[in-house]
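User: Reviewer 2 asked us to show a designed sequence for the structure in our supplementary figure. I'm pasting the structure tokens here. Could you produce the per-position amino acids so we can include them in the response letter?
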């Protein structure tokens, strides 16, 4: 079984049958004419009005301009990239931050977790040139790492979720070094994360729900979920975003995008409102990016598109990556 597929099984029990209910509020933003890209994340640069999409299969980053032209911004496996996972644009400093991790989705990957370990890291690129500025990597035999997603504070500090060898949140701050910010069993399999406008509160999606973390004290609060709602395990969140005292989540195991207003105290959710569910173009929706009041998100990562021997399906069985968009308000 492929490593990334294992991640999604742990997070959302993808082997179970999907709900038959269908709620359709999304429209197609654009597609990418590269069927075997197997994308995971999308980022946006409002200064240039361009999108960036990561590839777990090619270990690269593609750029889509305002006219829909697609080019390789960071070529395959350049600078030692593995699967490219979560990404964010630092508009002010003109950086593209990329999570990268080893895994069998990556073409030609031959490391074994038990013996070789699994490498992972964060790569910082110049957004104007595509040149590598610095990389922060873990490549030790026997250690299994997975850098998952990240968020950037206004002061430039980067917070990164990490799982497998330890379930932690890392940070890269003013000292320009990567270090553990927090490790806690209260945040199992940390995934998407979002910063509140006050820059003091970090929300982290994990396999059991959403944790609220005070960045000054590191106090962890589990958000209370409305009765009858579920955002854990199969319904857990991959991409998580903050918008006007509201959280927005992408749930791969439920093929669903939700809008979750916070209660007045900020320690729970008022409701879990479905914005999209079981869109016909969905096949492992993963993460997105907020552009104004719309979420642009990857609809079909196609992570299960492999034969039992590990070879990828032929092109005629794959689909062009589709980016959908849905209004938040």
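Assistant: Here is a per-position design you can include in the supplement:
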């Amino acid at each position: 079984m492929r490593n990334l597929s294992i991640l999604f099984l742990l997070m959302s029990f993808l082997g179970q049958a999907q709900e038959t209910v269908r709620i359709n509020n999304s429209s197609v933003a654009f597609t990418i004419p590269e069927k075997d890209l197997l994308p995971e994340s999308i980022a946006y640069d409002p200064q240039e009005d361009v999108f960036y999409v990561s590839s777990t299969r090619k270990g690269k980053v593609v750029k889509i301009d305002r006219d829909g032209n697609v080019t390789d911004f960071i070529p395959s496996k350049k600078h030692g990239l593995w699967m490219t996972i979560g990404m964010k644009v630092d508009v002010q400093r003109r950086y593209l931050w990329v999570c990268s991790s080893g895994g069998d989705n990556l073409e030609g990957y031959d490391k074994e977790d038990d013996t070789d370990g699994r490498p992972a890291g964060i790569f910082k690129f110049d957004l104007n040139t595509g040149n590598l500025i610095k990389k922060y990597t873990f490549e030790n035999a026997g250690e299994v790492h997975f850098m998952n997603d990240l968020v950037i504070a206004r002061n430039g500090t980067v917070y990164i979720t990490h799982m497998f060898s330890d379930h932690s949140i890392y940070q890269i701050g003013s000292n320009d070094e990567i270090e553990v910010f927090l490790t806690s069993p209260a945040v199992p399999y940390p995934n998407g994360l979002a910063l509140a406008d006050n820059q003091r509160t970090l929300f982290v999606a994990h396999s059991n729900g959403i944790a609220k973390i005070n960045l000054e004290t590191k106090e962890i609060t589990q958000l209370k979920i409305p009765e009858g709602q579920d955002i854990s395990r199969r319904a857990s969140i991959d991409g998580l975003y903050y918008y006007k005292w509201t959280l927005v989540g992408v749930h791969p195991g439920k093929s669903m995008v939700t809008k979750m207003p916070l209660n007045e105290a900020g320690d729970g959710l008022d409701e879990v409102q479905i914005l999209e569910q079981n869109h016909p173009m969905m096949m492992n929706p993963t993460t997105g990016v907020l552009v104004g009041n719309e979420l642009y998100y990857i609809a079909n990562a196609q992570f299960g598109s492999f034969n039992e021997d590990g070879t990828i399906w032929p092109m005629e069985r794959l689909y062009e990556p589709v980016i959908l968009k849905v209004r938040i308000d």
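For the response letter, you might also mention the following. Residues 8-19 have pLDDT under 50 and may be disordered. The two ends are 40 Å apart (CA to CA).
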